[in-house]
Amino acid sequence: MKKLLSLVLAVLMLASLTLSVSAATAGADLSSVLSYLYGSRVYTVDDLAAYYSAYGRGYYDGLITRWIDTCPDEKCSGAATFIVEDGVIKWACPTCGKSGVISAPQPEKTDKDKTPVTTSVVCPTCKKSDHLEYVTTTVVDGELKDVYVCTKCLEVVYAKYTKESSVPYNPYNYNYYGYYDFYFEKTIKCHHNENGKFCQKDAEIQPPLTVKGDKIVATYKCPDGHITEHSVDKDEYIPTYTVSVVAATGGDSSVRGGTSAKYGETKTVVFYPKTGYALSGVLVNGVSVAFKNNEVSFAVYGPVTVRPTFAKIADLKTYTITASATGNGKITALKNSANLSSSAKVEAKNADTVAFNFIPSGKNYRVSDVKVDGKSVGAVSTYSFKNLSADHKVEVTFAWKSPYNDVIERYLPAVEFVTESGIMGAYSAGNFSGTIGITADDLVCALAELTDTAQVLSDNAARRAWITANGIAKGVDLTKTCDVQTACTIVVDYLKVIEQKNAVTFVKLDKTASVKDATVALNLATAKTFDANRALNRYDLAAICRLIARLEYMG
């Protein structure tokens, strides 16, 4: 019985702790919550414990379905987890490895008890009445109500009290401050005095018990209608419980006003972290609660165990890891194996693990180098941080991995651009062949492709048609070798068309200048190169395309 009674207290505490800690509200009136539990079908403390645990409801928190308390095995000193399923309490203890089920024993019914309950009451959840079980009758908001429990939905249903109820009304309810049936007899001798003569007939207690000031009052009525009242001081019967605080490394604590507390009293535990430590968490009867200024407050409805946790301040400090990338690739980050939305700035603590992944943007790219706090750690694809004690900086460089065998180093950026944008490709197997000469047709097709962001020009014929339709390369023989002056004339006309079609202005393009002056201003070629008018090759074409793509413009 001791173990089961502790379950009741644990359930009561769980029902009230959330309210008392987070909202700092005084103890709730439990009479309306528990009155339905102590009726004609519940007679012993054991019955009450199991029945309440199975059908218990917190006054504010709804149905209680899970809590932690002493292991039911008498040989085990550990704590078990209890959960309500299918109307019974199931438990499991990690200390002894045992588990089991606790069911409420049912008292023997009298013939009157066995009479079926007939009611028009319907459960609001399942919309049926065939699962309703009468529990008790009590006063709710000043009105006498029958109380039922739906065994299917675990819903408590209140209905208007009727004298025709086939289940006898039991006035001995578990009220606000304790088991008052322990302190009041069901029947006493009537004390009515008339002309010096006492009535002395049997007077029965009348529901409900009431609180008048500091008194708990029971009203008795005899067959002649005489009323007799008996009262007790309610403070005499308020239970007293102990608040225990578990010792923890890194700090001390004290219970303000002492460890003893009356039922419903609010107690405050103050924590004193040692140098270099901070309060990191508080459990009250196994439930994590919020704390402020190293204090936690709660209402006491049974024995309370407070378990603080202190952590080293260094472990609680937040550090920042910044990450940046150069080149074509991206960085992703995970914190404690969870993906982060951004890797640019990651905040983490000493206990966290942060991993960065370096991902090239395509098959022709690679990680060239990774630097951590300015020092190279090599061309790694991932890097992790553990046991953080300082801020860090990660820098990754991605480089182009040329698919060609013959590209000259100085032309790598240009060849990378035309290759990855699909404007030019290999000239022969495995080779870019940058020194091979080009024709004017090669140039205009490349320029048209550079413009084709919508990808509507499917082949060179379509590209030539676009060039012609826009008046570019007028009078130019596209089959002939392309020299510098021809190329510059075509490019200047091309840029003017682009300005017109896109309502933009290239910063360095002077539309009134000569082709030579415009060429020099655009850095397409020097005046000396323009005058020399040499033939162009594939390297030159790649460089022209990259230069155009990088021109500054407005609008």
Number of strands: 34
Beta-strand share of residues = 25-35%
Label the structural class: alpha+beta
N/C terminus separation: 84 Å
Oligomeric state: single chain
Radius of gyration: 43 Å
Put simply, the count of helices is 11
Mean pLDDT: 78
Strand order in the sheet with the most strands: 18-16-23-20-21
User: What percent of the residues sit in helical stretches (DSSP H or I)?
Assistant: 10-25%
Using the alpha-carbon principal axes, give the shape: elongated
Uncertain stretches:
1-64, 104-118, 163-182
Describe the fold and architecture.
The structure is a single chain. The chain has 555 residues and is an alpha+beta fold. Strands 18-16-23-20-21 form a 5-stranded mixed sheet. It has a 5-stranded mixed sheet with strand order 27-24-32-29-30, with helices on one face. A hairpin with a 3-residue loop joins β1 and β2 (62-63). α5 packs across α11 and α8 packs across α9. It is elongated, with a radius of gyration of 43 Å. It starts with a helix and ends with a strand.
